[in-house]
Amino acid sequence: MSITVSPVKDSRGNIVGASKVARDITTRIESQTAMEKYIKNLETLNTVGKSISENLDVQGILQRVTDATTLLTGAGFGAFFYNNSDEKGNSFRLFTLSGAPRKIFDNMAMPRHTDIFLPTFRDKKVMRIDDITKHADFGKNAPFNGMPKGHFSVASYLAIPVVSKSGSVIGGLLYGHPEAGKFTAEHELLVVNIAAQAAVSLDNSKLFEQVKSLSEKKDEFIALASHELKTPLTTIKGYLQVLAKKEADKMSQLFVDKSLYQVEKLQTLVEDLLNMSRIESGQLNFRLEVFDIKEMLREIIETFSYSSQSHRVIEDLGNNPVIIRGDRQRIEQAILNLITNAIKYSPKAEEIFINLEVVDEKMTLRVRDKGIGLTGEQQQQLFTRFYRAEDTKGISGLGLGLYLTKQIIDRHGGIIEVSSEYGEGSEFSFTLPLALQKKNIEKAI
Ligand code: ADP
């Protein structure tokens, strides 16, 4: 009731009485309470929806769903049971529980293939029963003929199947309350909707697990295969090198040279795979030393000038030594990757450009080509392993070179960058800290 009391005054302003108005506000309070409940339900629904769609872990999804739906339905307890049925199928497996201590299920048989449970677990039916103890199928099954002793007292019963996209019943959400008639059609609707959402998340999490395990298998395979390939390749190369030194007719000499060239190519590929495996398992080690990267570049360029018939290298390496601290072999590998790519991906060009520069205690190496170039989208994916742009058909490669190069430069505290225009050409550059202050360089060499 809402009561308003107002004073009643005479013509001189004296209070001579009081008037009171009483109003029945039951409906107003009821609708306010209903509204508050509705908003609370919405909030719960929102958070559960968000958390289950973001979750990829089965336990997490099912616990959130069981907790939230137990709360929303006001059930005495809620539980998710896996549909564990084999051919004879006698048990469902309790997976998550809410609102009641787990030990109440410990000494109890699980729900069985009885007429009460089967419609949910086999026929995908929602069961909402006001008083299960009065149900026609209740108490018919031995050995308990009803609820086992010590069972959480259940009158109101609600069971909702969780059905996978494939149509199979993953399990069931079961709710109980000691009083009769507790679960309404709205409760049923709420849980049915959440169960559908949970089923999608469970399907995704299964897929995710499969993909994860496949990807792990692939990595294991690559590690094993590259390791096994390495030994016979080294042996073949050794024999070929011995043969190459022997006097032989022109044709044999040519074939031995060609074989050596191909074996070396194979070795690089295998080494890339092996290094990738080492990076993924955190086992790529570096042997640091202080050296002149300009000298290294000069040697690399010289070798390229002899071996590349297609491109000329235009270089500008500056006049002074550029001393860095790093793993000689890995840095060389990074540089070789960039130069090889510049040549490989500019088949119609005749030149590539290499520039070395020192600014602010850092060195920057730029490798530029006038080749096929890269779109913005392609540039974003370049450094991920096995990535190859669409227009590389006919150009051999595994898509590992830039991934390895970036790992090497990152691990040396450097930065690798690309700028490119599709159809015009690309420039790859990396920056590394110098090992010594400029003024100390001369002393060092
Ligand atoms: P691979 O050359 O073995 O394919 P990389 O990791 O070295 O592997 O390069 C990944 C991809 O990046 C290449 O497949 C190619 O699509 C692109 N790419 C690399 N360098 C260049 C370049 N200089 N110009 C154009 N595209 C390039």
Fold and architecture overview:
The chain has 4 domains: 1-52; 53-209, Beta-Lactamase (2-Layer Sandwich); 210-280, Helix Hairpins, CATH 1.10.287.130; 288-444, 2-Layer Sandwich (Heat Shock Protein 90). The protein contains 11 helices and 14 strands. It has helices at residues 26-54, 58-73, 103-106, 118-121, 185-245, 250-280, 293-307, 328-344, 376-381, 401-411, 438-444, and strands at residues 2-9, 15-23, 77-82, 93-98, 127-129, 156-163, 169-177, 289-292, 312-316, 323-326, 351-359, 362-369, 415-421, 425-433. A 5-stranded antiparallel sheet has the order 4-3-7-6-5. β6 and β7 form a beta hairpin. Bound molecules: adenosine-5'-diphosphate. The site of adenosine-5'-diphosphate has 22 residues, from α8 and α10.
Quick structural gist:
By secondary structure, this protein is α+β, with helices and mostly antiparallel strands.
Q: State the CATH architecture of the largest domain.
A: 2-Layer Sandwich
The helicity comes to 40-55%
Query: Are there runs of 5+ residues with pLDDT below 50, and where?
Result: none
Mean pLDDT: 88
CATH superfamily of the largest domain: GAF domain
CATH classification class of the largest domain:
Alpha Beta
Globular, elongated, flat, extended or rod-shaped: what is the shape? elongated
Ligand kinds: adenosine-5'-diphosphate
Spatial ordering of strands, largest sheet: 4-3-7-6-5
What is the count of structural domains? 4
Question: What are the key terms here?
Answer:
about 450 residues, alpha+beta, Beta-Lactamase, 4 domains, 5-stranded antiparallel β-sheet, 5-stranded mixed β-sheet, binds adenosine-5'-diphosphate
